[in-house]
Automatic annotation (TrEMBL):
Any matching Pfam family: Ribosomal_L14e
Superkingdom assignment: Eukaryota
InterPro entries reported in the protein's UniProt record: KOW, Rib_uL2_dom2, Ribosomal_eL14, Ribosomal_eL14_dom, Translation_prot_SH3-like_sf
Function: Component of the ribosome, a large ribonucleoprotein complex responsible for the synthesis of proteins in the cell. The small ribosomal subunit (SSU) binds messenger RNAs (mRNAs) and translates the encoded message by selecting cognate aminoacyl-transfer RNA (tRNA) molecules. The large subunit (LSU) contains the ribosomal catalytic site termed the peptidyl transferase center (PTC), which catalyzes the formation of peptide bonds, thereby polymerizing the amino acids delivered by tRNAs into a polypeptide chain.
GO cellular component term, pick one: cytosolic large ribosomal subunit
KOW domain location: 13-40
Family: Belongs to the eukaryotic ribosomal protein eL14 family.
PANTHER family assigned to the protein according to its UniProt record, in alphabetical order: 60S RIBOSOMAL PROTEIN L14, LARGE RIBOSOMAL SUBUNIT PROTEIN EL14
Protein name from the UniProt record: KOW domain-containing protein
Keywords on record: Cytoplasm, Ribonucleoprotein, Ribosomal protein
Compartments where found: Cytoplasm
Organism this protein belongs to: Aspergillus ibericus CBS 121593
GO BP field: ribosomal large subunit biogenesis; translation
Length: 149
């Protein structure tokens, strides 16, 4: 028989241990882990972050208010208490992995741009103009050096 390589789909499934980003409610923008699946629309989440301002207390969350991430806490038992979740959260360095993810970095840059003062926005405008001018100058040199046909 032929060697067939079967790979598991890389979908973000709703499963115990999956890390979610909360999009609505009082904990918007914070991470939590799915501890138990209540039904097809709700999950029990717990977010024992290492940073005080990022802690999410254990509560039931609608899946429509959450974004599933690629991060999973492996071997998290169903209905685990906050203590075991915190230990596995720290062991798997979820906060560090999240900070390095492109989604978190993009969100951080958007937030930073929102909080710019008028003068800082002006400086960004000038820097972008300078960069655009340098790119156009390099492009013009390449066009001039290209053979004419």
């Amino acid at each position: 028989m032929a060697d067939i390589d079967v790979q598991v789909a890389q979908w973000k499934l709703v499963e115990v241990g999956r890390v979610v980003l909360i999009r609505r409610g009082p904990f918007t923008g914070k991470l939590a882990a799915i501890v138990e699946i209540v039904d097809h629309k709700r999950v029990l989440v717990d977010g024992p972050s290492t940073e005080e301002q990022k802690i999410v207390p254990r509560h039931v969350l609608q899946l429509s208010h959450a974004t599933l991430t690629h991060f999973v806490i492996p071997q998290l038992p169903r209905s685990a208490g906050t203590g075991p979740v915190r230990k596995l959260w720290q062991k798997n360095e979820i906060d560090g992995k999240w900070a390095k993810s492109s989604f978190a970095q993009k969100t951080l840059s958007i937030e930073r741009r929102k909080n710019l003062t008028d003068f800082e926005r002006f400086k960004v405008l000038r820097l972008r103009k300078q960069a655009r001018y340098e790119v156009q100058k390099a492009h013009a040199k390449l066009r001039a050096a290209a053979p004419k046909s």
